[in-house]
Amino acid sequence: MSSLDVEDFIQQNRVLADRVETFRSYGESEKQWQGRKEFILRNISDFQQQRLDQLLSLSMVWANNVFLGCRYSTELLDKVKEMAEGIEVEDAPVFKTRDEIMKQQQGR
After folding, report:
1. Which mean pLDDT values do the consecutive 10-residue runs of the chain (108 residues) have?
2. C-alpha–C-alpha distance, residues 10 and 93, integer Å
3. pTM of the model
4. 53 — phi, psi (to 5°)?
5. 3 state SS for 79-102
6. Does residue 63 sit in helix, strand or coil?
7. Measuring CA to CA, which residue among 63, 65, 69 is closest to residue 31?
8. By CB neighbour count within 10 A (0-12 exposed, 13-18 middle, 19+ buried), where does 29 fall?
9. Neighbours of 43 (CB within 10 A)
10. Using one digit for the tens of pLDDT, what is the confidence trace for 34-57?
11. What's the rounded Cα separation, in Å, for the pair 81 and 62?
12. Is 39 within 8 Å of 47 (Cβ atoms)?
């Protein structure tokens, strides 16, 4: 689902889109929210009402990884990356671990 597809989906499913807006975190930037909202809208049909908390948690894992550089287990990251396939984030930060920085410094 491209960004245009998401916008079409929102127009056709206004009630659902309005409900998803209530999931925005207080400190979330517009850029972070747009990405996480797209993640939620792309995957909401795969989660029944009683599993909605799981979807919201997975959306936070994805956003924390992309925007803050948080690390999670390989299995969990593989799952959220698969769920987020096709979501494009412009100017996403690039993070390096301390080990990667040290290795780069030693190569000089």
Report:
1. 62 78 92 93 88 96 94 96 92 76 78
2. 27
3. 0.77
4. -60, -35
5. HHHHHCCCCCCCCCCCCCCHHHHH
6. helix
7. 63
8. exposed
9. 17
10. 999 999 999 998 988 889 999 999
11. 7
12. no
Please, which contacts does 21-25 make with residues 24 or more away whose CB atoms are closer than 8 Å? 23/56, 23/59
- Two tokens, residue 72: 């999670």
Q: What is the residue type of 3?
A: S
> Quick one: which of 69, 82, 90 has its CA closest to 43?
82
Residues in the chain: 108
Quick one: pLDDT at residue 6?
64
**What distances in angstroms separate CA 77 from CA 12, 27, 58, 87, one per listed residue?**
31, 23, 9, 15
